[in-house]
Design a protein that fits this description.
This protein has helices spanning 45-54, 76-87, 122-128, 137-143, 181-193, 232-247, and strands at residues 29-31, 38-39, 42-43, 65-68, 96-97, 113-117, 133-136, 171-174, 212-215, 220-221, 229-230, 255-257. The protein contains 6 helices and 12 strands. The chain is of the alpha/beta class. The strands form 4 sheets. Strands 7-6-8-9-12 form a 5-stranded parallel beta sheet, with helices on both faces. The longest helix is centred in the last third of the chain and has 16 residues, at 232-247. Helices cover 25% and strands 14% of the residues.
Length: 265
């Protein structure tokens, strides 16, 4: 959906032909949020007018409505609360599809030890999706401090002993853009090139590599700034380019999700 393209009509609330309360709706809406319903923290006025046509006097939707967002650094119920506050009517958590929500379908990886990248409530989100054994980039960095060398202020001042008791990583979850791109890019590459044992080195990078699940393919997104901002798709582009340059092979995904992927819909 694009701003201004929703088929809501422009007249009074009676101008939109909606099914009566006695009949079952034969259609519904999947609504994008950023740039369509809100811009930054401000609701787009036309969106409020549209919702006045979609919501009845009791605050209930006349037809099924689902909010689809490529945001992933927030919990589903918190996003629902945020939308409820913005729009002035109740949005239930099951009406919100975050970029990583479809990872719930990948049950074959839920029991594996997965490195998770992004920001916000990463571990809680991963566990709500069904992943039972997750390791954050920060936890990996703490276990292997010599891996993160770009920031001079964070470089270890002494040589730490090599860890032999750290269980192998079995896959990578990319839930959204991280804050420290250089750290996450480096440690994700370390995991892929070492077959999940970043404290060691392999003469040849394994291929196919460990499974990678990624969400939010947006190269750019629109916030309050006049020009678009980098999205998680830009981070993925960097990771793909580095992997290709280092190995000569293509980075492969077990799953790509987030709008506009078919998996998300």
């Amino acid at each position: 959906c694009h701003q201004g393209s929703l088929p809501f009509g422009s007249g009074s609330s009676n101008s939109l032909l909606l099914p009566s309360q006695q009949s079952q709706p034969t259609f519904g809406f999947l609504l994008d949020i950023d740039g369509v319903l809100v811009r930054g923290h401000k609701v787009i006025p036309a969106a409020l007018e549209a919702f006045r046509k979609l919501v009845d006097a009791q605050g209930q939707f006349r037809v099924p409505v689902v909010f689809v967002t490529n945001s992933g650094n927030i919990l589903q119920h918190v996003k629902a609360q945020e939308l409820s506050s913005l729009f002035g009517f109740k949005v239930d958590p099951d009406q919100v599809i975050l970029c990583h929500s479809p990872m719930e379908l990948f049950s074959q990886f839920h029991g594996k030890r997965m490195l998770v990248s992004g920001q916000g409530p990463l571990v809680e989100n991963a566990r709500l999706l069904g992943f039972r054994h997750v390791v954050t980039v920060e936890e990996l960095r703490t276990a292997f401090p010599v891996l993160d060398m770009v920031d001079l202020e964070r470089r270890p001042k002494t040589t730490a002993p090599v860890r032999n008791d750290f269980p192998a990583i079995e896959g990578v979850l990319l839930l959204g853009e991280p804050v420290r791109w250089e750290t996450n890019l480096q440690l994700i590459m370390d995991v892929l090139l070492s077959n999940g044992n970043p404290g060691t080195g392999l003469a040849t990078a394994p291929y196919p590599h460990l499974p990678v699940l990624a969400s939010n393919l947006d190269l750019l997104w629109m916030a309050e700034a006049k020009m678009p901002r980098f999205g998680h798709g830009t981070f993925l582009l960097c990771l793909e380019a580095i992997y290709r340059k280092v190995t000569g092979k293509e980075l492969r995904y077990e799953g790509l999700m987030g709008k506009p992927s078919l998996l998300t819909y």
